[in-house]
Amino acid sequence: MIGKKIEKAINEQINAETYSAYLYWSMSAALAGMNLPGFANWMRIQAMEEMTHAEKFFNYIVERGGTVTLTAIDGPPTEWKDVEAIFKNVLDHERKVTGLINGLMDLAMAEKDHASAMFLQWFVSEQVEEEASAEESLGKLKVAGTSSPALYMLDKEMAQRVFVPPITGE
Ligand code: FEO
Questions:
Q1: 93 lines ligand 1 (CB under 6 A)
Q2: CATH T-level assignment (fold) for domain 4-158
Q3: DSSP H/E element including 155
Q4: Would you give the DSSP letter of residue 72?
Q5: pTM for this structure?
Q6: Could you say which of 66, 91, 99, 167 would form a disulfide bridge with 134 (CB–CB 3.0 to 4.6 Å)?
Q7: What's the DSSP call for residue 81?
Q8: Cα–Cα distance between 71 and 100 in angstroms, integer?
């Protein structure tokens, strides 16, 4: 049976992951509006990945005999200055999520909840990847600058991303 404190914190994380999906979905819409379909594709897949994160937390609570409590999701921003501003926002957001995951891990350890600490390990690693991927995209955008041909090439690259459901930590 899952402890009440960790159950509450994980329920809050389900909200945070769903908000992440909502935020990236909104960014995908903004990117489509900037005539960057490849970036819009990349971001839509990012949103789908976030829903798999929410689902992992959901399934974990159920598996431990806890209660999933879904709450209202805040509305995300809908406008950004340009594509670089969007990716800066992604990086800032992922850093914030890393802080939330670390907070959950701290709680699991304080509660001596070894099962939750093991479960959260997947998210600790995932956040390293999430931040690295946002930094990489931001770096490429900085190199491309406002040059249309470079941005066009980058957009084609972002169009290649496909959704791959996670296979670990189910
Ligand atoms: Fe669910 Fe982007 O971390």
A1: no
A2: Ferritin (1.20.1260)
A3: helix 148-158
A4: P
A5: 0.95
A6: 91
A7: S
A8: 17
Distance between CA atoms of residues 119 and 125, nearest Å: 11
Q: How far is the CA of 69 from the centre of ligand 1 (A)?
A: 20
Q: DSSP state, 74? A: P
Is residue 60 within 8 A of residue 10, CB to CB? The reply is yes
Spatial separation of the C-alpha atoms in residues 43 and 141, rounded to whole Å: 15
**Contact at 8 Å (CB) between 131 and 93?**
no
Question: Quick check: CB of 137 below 6 Å from ligand 1?
Answer: no
d(CA 25, CA 39) in angstroms, rounded, equals: 12
| Token pair listed for 29 | 């819409």
- For residue range 18-48, list pLDDT tens digits in order: 999 999 999 999 999 999 999 999 999 999 9
Please name which of 85, 29, 15, 95 lies closest in space to residue 57, comparing C-alpha atoms.
15
Cβ atoms of residues 139 and 29 within 8 Å:
no
The candidate with the shortest Cα–Cα distance to 116, out of 124, 49, 69, 131, is: 124
Cα 118 to middle of ligand 1, angstroms? 18
